[in-house]
């Protein structure tokens, strides 16, 4: 089956066409600056160089039309007709408590996703626009919603309830939801495959470290706790997000800087994290370069980030009452040996023994601990698109 995977952001759209039999990506790409001047599509057919085309994309509908046109292009396409696309899998960020697993999209599902918009105002509306555009351009093609939050619906109440009046959970479903669920699920199952052990027997901690970052405690293949909360703002320090802070800071900054609530939230979401700490970048590659040059701002940002990450992993070792595997994934986790080293060195008390030679890898599957390490630390590149394709195939072939 040919599965088209769509991931819509507010002004971008990522796509992959995946052959579900081999799980090979036959074509992929990115539409950027949708609704903004200078929009472009980057298209990459398997085995060929990327093709970048600047073209107006006023809405996601035009972006998806360009994607479908690229896939069926006589010269660079990989299919001859849209009928060769058997199903579409859509990444949807927030499913609230309504969705505990992926689901076939129908009118009832669309309404339920829309009802979660206030929980993810930057993401869910864009996801819906992408779904609606695909339905209009590909009528009759089965479509599946795969939720970032679904994997974490196995968390026990003691892990997802906040220390605020319980009525806010009852009335508004204010609770911890967690995100990056598709990634956490993929790499944890892949770790079990690599180690040749049943996932039901493993206690795993996944560190999904990108511009957005989260940690997840997984027992027997199920999420029991995760660092992101009601929104992706909670948890680790990230590229531009603050992560955990004293809530009173919001009122304090508002008064000192004469900002309204929206103004402070903008600071916490877009001006904080390692960008705010370093004062010059949200890109961890820039921070690493800065550290090599002795930049104290870069060093401070990296040290604070790593320290908070160590604390989260340590707390999840306690929550799991032990750990068998620690996984590093996503852009930073897969490519930054320094962060892996600092984190593992901070967890020697838990039996983690890093092998510096094994740790000298980028973007490949690898075990980076010594043979006699009590805990196995691994690098596993994430593949959320494959997970979305797998879920889509399962549902449309039932």
From TrEMBL:
Annotated organism of origin: Parasporobacterium paucivorans DSM 15970
Listed pathway(s): Metabolic intermediate biosynthesis; acetyl-CoA biosynthesis; acetyl-CoA from acetate: step 1/2
Cofactor(s) of this protein: Mg(2+); Mn(2+)
PANTHER family to which the protein is assigned, alphabetical: ACETATE KINASE, ACETATE KINASE-RELATED
Name of protein: Acetate kinase
GO terms classed as biological process: acetate metabolic process; acetyl-CoA biosynthetic process
Catalytic activity line of the entry: acetate + ATP = acetyl phosphate + ADP
Gene: ackA
Single GO term (MF): ATP binding
The protein's Enzyme Commission number: 2.7.2.1
Keywords in alphabetical order: ATP-binding, Cytoplasm, Kinase, Magnesium, Metal-binding, Nucleotide-binding, Transferase
Enzyme class, broadest EC rank: transferase
């Amino acid at each position: 089956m040919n599965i088209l995977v769509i991931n819509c952001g507010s002004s971008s759209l990522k796509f992959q066409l995946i052959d579900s039999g081999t799980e090979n990506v036959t074509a992929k790409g990115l539409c950027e600056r949708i609704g903004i001047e200078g929009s472009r599509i980057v298209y990459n057919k398997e085995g060929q160089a990327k093709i970048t085309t600047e073209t107006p994309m006023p809405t996601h509908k035009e972006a998806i039309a360009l994607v479908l046109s690229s896939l069926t292009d006589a010269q660079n396409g990989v299919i001859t007709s849209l009928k060769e696309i058997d199903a579409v899998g859509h990444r949807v960020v927030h499913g609230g408590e309504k969705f505990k697993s992926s689901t076939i999209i129908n009118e009832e599902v669309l309404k339920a996703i829309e009802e979660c918009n206030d929980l993810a105002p930057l993401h869910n509306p864009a996801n819906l626009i992408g779904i609606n555009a695909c339905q209009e351009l590909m009528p009759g093609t089965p479509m599946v919603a795969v939720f970032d939050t679904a994997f974490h619906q196995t968390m026990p109440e003691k892990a997802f309830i906040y220390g605020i009046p319980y009525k806010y959970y009852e009335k508004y479903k204010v609770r911890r939801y967690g995100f990056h669920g598709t990634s956490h699920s993929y790499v944890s199952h892949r770790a079990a495959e690599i180690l040749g052990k049943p996932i039901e027997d493993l206690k795993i901690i996944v560190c999904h470290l990108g511009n957005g970052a989260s940690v997840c405690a997984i027992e027997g293949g199920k999420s029991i706790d995760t660092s992101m909360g009601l929104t992706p703002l909670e948890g680790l320090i990230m590229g531009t997000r603050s992560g955990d802070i004293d809530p009173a800071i919001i009122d304090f900054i508002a008064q000192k800087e004469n900002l309204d609530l929206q103004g402070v939230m903008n600071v916490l979401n877009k001006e904080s994290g390692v960008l705010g700490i370093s004062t010059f970048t949200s890109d961890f590659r820039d921070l690493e370069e800065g550290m090599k040059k002795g930049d104290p701002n870069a060093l401070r940002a990296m040290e604070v980030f790593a320290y908070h990450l160590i604390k989260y992993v340590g707390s999840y070792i306690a929550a799991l009452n032990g750990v068998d595997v620690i996984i590093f994934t996503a852009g930073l986790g897969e490519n930054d040996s320094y962060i892996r080293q600092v984190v593992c060195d901070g967890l020697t008390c838990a039996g983690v023994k890093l092998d510096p030679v094994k740790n000298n890898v980028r973007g490949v599957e690898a075990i980076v601990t010594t043979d006699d390490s009590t805990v196995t630390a691994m690098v596993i590149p994430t593949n959320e698109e494959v997970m979305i394709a797998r879920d889509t195939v399962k549902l449309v072939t039932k």
